[in-house]
Here is the input.
Amino acid sequence: MSDDKTIVAQSPAADSLNNTTSRSAPILLQYDGNAAGKRFVLTQNEVSLGRRADKVDVWIDDGSVSREHCRVTFQGTKAVVTDLGSLNHTYVNDRIVMQTADLCHGDMLRVGNIRLRFFSHGSADQLLFDKIYKMAVLDRMLDIFRKDYLVEKLEEEFKLAKAAGGGLSLLLFDLDKFKVVNDTYGHDAGDLILKEVCSAIKRLVRPTDTFGRFGGEEFVILLPRTTLDQAFRFAEVIRQTVERLKIIYNNTHIPVTVSIGCAHITNEMTDSSQLLKMADVLVYQSKQGGRNRVSRP
Here is the structure.
């Protein structure tokens, strides 16, 4: 899959899931608003912040924030903030930014009523934060996101897709006849299969995708800025990858397949749960159709 825009507002553990984002990249940690606790990984030399989702790199959904509020520019190890004529001003440590101001490790950046703490390259604070945050949002056995984080991320991506366009697709899938595997070979075999399947899929997802465990053997992948056709092709890659896995337990090969529902946001949808429900219906269609297949609207 391809993506035509570098997204700096990434998942908190994208580096762990995809091995693509350096742990030492600078970040902004949001303190206020509905997205308090959200981490923005700053991977570009110039990053814009604001409320207009289709114009900025760091989208802050709050009425006190201007459409294009401010810009952070990196000059070597130095970060500089420039106000872009915002209505409610930009502040660094509660000092108004008239034109530009330096942004140092630990500084508090305020845009309108939203505060964001800046962590610079390679700081011990950032690495400690990463470790604590990952413990909170990741499934420890599978090293993918937990359900509570998935639900929050789905709501965020749904709102962003509605505000900025670009589409949002969702893959919901589970392992076929997984209970039979557990009953036949035991739960250790089941755990091995879950680990192997997730490890294989993690190598396929993009840094901007969100892959997580929704239930026991049920999983979700959020695909922002992805058409239904692109999502369907990706789902087929996942299905084939899992089908080809050679999982050996106690010298026995255990075949594994998945049934996938591939859903896409529509103009009629008003709530993120509708997208998830559509995917769930499609998973059921895959099961009814003989399993080991992908269903789409």
In short: Residues 2-23 have pLDDT under 50 and may be disordered. Residues 147-164 form the longest helix (18 residues). Helices lie at 14-18, 124-137, 147-164, 178-185, 187-202, 228-243, 272-288. DSSP finds seven helices and 20 strands in the chain.
